[in-house]
Amino acid sequence: MAETCYRHPNRETGVSCSNCGRPICPDCMTPTPVGMRCPECASQRTKVVRGVGEASLLSGAPATFVLIALNAAAFLAEIATGTGGLAIRGSSVVQEFGLYGPLVAESEWYRLLTGGFLHASLIHVGFNMFALFFLGRILEPSIGTPRFLGVYFASLFGGAFGALLLDPNALTIGASGAIFGIFGATFVIARGRGFDAVASSIGVVLLINLALSFGAANISLGGHLGGLAAGVLCGAAIIAGDRGRLGENRLAVELAVLVGVALLAILGALAIA
Q1: Contact 87, 131 (CB under 8 A)
Q2: CATH, residue 246
Q3: Is residue 163 part of a domain?
Q4: Of residues 70, 64, 121, the one with CA closest to residue 91
Q5: Could you give the CA distance from residue 155 to residue 139 in angstroms, rounded to a whole number?
Q6: d(C-alpha 51, C-alpha 178), whole Å
Q7: Is 56 among the catalytic positions?
Q8: Across-strand partners of 3?
Q9: What is the pLDDT along the chain (273 residues), one digit of tens a residue?
Q10: Distant-in-sequence, close-in-space partners of 268: CB < 8 Å, separation ≥ 6
Q11: What total of structural domains would you count in the chain?
Q12: Active site residue: 91, 176, 213, 220, which one?
């Protein structure tokens, strides 16, 4: 069961004060260099804590690290079934699990999911996992793991839909759709919660990556745009919940919206495959 803000008992939240641990809603959050703090702790002088190790890092964003591990394991499987070295050329894993419209149309629906965990090169997987590491440690602690996973997979399926929409006959792989969705959701949520400095930084990086997507060879523009659109929709739903527009059971409604975005993307992809 979700916790409620200690100052606003009718508001569910997945965020706790980094100092005292009390659950806080967006109206009670104060961003500090050491995380979100409640109004009382925000007025106190920050204490230096030594000995914070990997356990603290993992506990703040567990899904982020699991997703990175899954993508890394999938890339190792690609290399193991390739022609040698770090190249994935000839990989049976890519052929059997990459996103490919004609085979999706022949009931290989799992490709909508598995294609989002495969990558074309070490640089490809490295760039995407670095972005996930950076963004996940911002977004997951601020919205909670269930919603973070909802945003990630809704964006992944949104990317698959966009890729098939623009080029259903291309073999497409990569987590870029999910990453662009995380970019979009982080931007919308940061802006909606008043963290304009964070939103501006994310927005600049997002615009640069979008610019690189247009006209570049071997890049799925549809995958990037589809993932981004899904992430923005998910972020908007979370902000609507923050502002009390989704009722008392806002967490359940938000999760339902995220699942709905994913299902619409899946149905759309199946319809055009």
Answers
A1: no
A2: 1.20.1540.10
A3: yes
A4: 121
A5: 14
A6: 33
A7: no
A8: 13
A9: 567 888 888 887 877 777 777 888 888 888 765 567 788 887 765 443 333 334 445 557 999 999 999 999 999 999 999 877 667 888 999 999 999 999 999 999 999 999 999 999 999 999 999 999 999 999 999 999 999 999 999 999 999 999 999 999 999 999 999 999 999 999 999 999 989 999 999 999 999 999 988 877 788 999 999 999 999 999 999 999 988 888 878 889 999 999 999 999 999 999 998
A10: 161, 165
A11: 2
A12: 176
Q: Residue 2's domain spans which residues?
A: 1-47
- 18 and 143 part of one domain: no
The full DSSP string for 198-246 is: HHHHHHHHHHHHHHHHTT-TT--HHHHHHHHHHHHHHHHHHHHHHTTTT
Instruction: Answer yes or no: do 143 and 256 share one domain.
Output: yes
The b-or-e profile of 169-194 (16+ CB within 10 A means b, else e) is ebbbbbbbbbbbbbbbbbbbbbbbbe
* Helix/strand/coil for 82: coil
Give every CB contact of residue 133 below 8 A, 6+ residues apart in sequence.
64, 68
Cα separation values, 215 from 173, 212, 222, Å: 18, 7, 12
Smallest CA-to-CA distance from 120 within 67, 173, 84 is with 173
Neighbours of 110 (CB within 10 A): 11
Concerning whether 124 is annotated as a catalytic residue, the answer is no
Is 253 buried (19+), middle (13-18) or exposed (0-12) by CB count in 10 A?
middle
